[in-house]
TrEMBL record:
Pyridoxal 5'-phosphate binds at G239, E273, P274, G275, R276, Y370. Its EC number is 4.1.1.20. It is an enzyme of class 4 (lyase). Belongs to the Orn/Lys/Arg decarboxylase class-II family. LysA subfamily. PROSITE patterns: ODR_DC_2_1 (PS00878), ODR_DC_2_2 (PS00879). Pathway: Amino-acid biosynthesis; L-lysine biosynthesis via DAP pathway; L-lysine from DL-2,6-diaminopimelate: step 1/1. NCBIfam families: lysA (TIGR01048). This is Diaminopimelate decarboxylase.
Amino acid sequence: MTYFDWQQDSLLAENLSVQSLAENYGTPLYVYSKAAITDAFLSYQNALKDYPGLVCYAVKANSNLAVLGLLARLGSGFDIVSAGELDRVIAAGGDPKKVVFSGVGKTQAEMKKALEAGVLCFNVESKAELHRLSEVALSCNKVAKISLRVNPDVDAKTHPYISTGLKENKFGIAIDDALDTYRVAAALENIEITGVDCHIGSQLTEVTPFLDAIDRLLVLIDQLKAEGIVLKHLDIGGGLGVTYQEETPPNAGDYLAQVIEKIKGRNLELVMEPGRSIVANAGILVTQVEYLKPTADKNFAIVDAAMNDNIRPALYQAWQAIEPVTKGSSEAQAWEIVGPVCETGDFLGRDRKLAIEAGDYLAMFGAGAYCFTMSSNYNSRPRACEIMVDKDSAFVVRERESFSDLIKGESLLPISE
Ligand code: LLP
């Protein structure tokens, strides 16, 4: 079910015309669908059936407070990678006791804050981090619950920048060193071992790499058990892909059914950290065509959104569908959809066959995940406005930035004659 659908020639976001939203709120504009986020989250939640588990939404995919607040009310936990993300979860009404803290570079201050908030688990990525966490926990008289992020060395068959489960990646503890690292953890003060986790990459379109990774972790879990280290939970990370173009990823229900089949009877709670598959297709980026610039080589459509609003095409050569929000009758031609930023890499789409004119609004699909959160102010461009649609209503969930936002905290040097 998609919540961005066509009614005759007009694109709707739930029940609202995207053309009207663009006219009312201006562009570039992020539009999210509350129902789409809710459905995607519930597809995970419902797939658990009565298997004990927790869906920890990966905040980095889309950290808008309204998104986090919606998910918190649906019962979601959260996967965070910084103190800033923890603050957002708390500000949105999320429960810190349902938070797992991932990331290779947790600072002492971040550890302290997370311990005081009472997070569910630290997903530890190295021995050095384990020692630091033990010291911080001791100093604030807390016990840190931990899982080791194990790198199972499986090929996730995804873009190299978002593949994280191979030996050569910076992430996790090599599976061959995991047993030894658990022994170190077991001997450390103020550390309580509760689980094991892995995250092998993002935008995976097959279940096999996930299942292979779980197989390797189950071997480890058995070895630990033989040494008297009994784990309570298995965290399978995020990574389930979505359809941007013609990918056919499994749905959350089929995926989880296979995972549960593998681990049932083992008395292991199942934790997962999906990001993209909850929000990517719940958002679009709306932009207006400023100029059409046909040249001898290529036709450029210069739009008012740019790589600072969505860096995915420039960074990963990511492909996201682009369509006019109101279909006209002119003839389609191939266009390079580019932004105003002074970089050749500033494009949103290449060689797109579209019937467009200056002034038209275009929607870029699949823009709910890793688009706004990776946006910047490059070229002193204010960040876009974000709105959330709920049936017939639209709510501004982040105002468009202004010049004062751009220079917040900056100052001129004192004048010295
Ligand atoms: N857990 C951990 C430890 C992660 O590193 C990530 C994503 C997730 C969960 C969520 O994964 P997801 O379900 O969203 O695939 N910016 C890139 C994606 C980077 C993903 C980083 N880690 C993109 O735009 O494609």
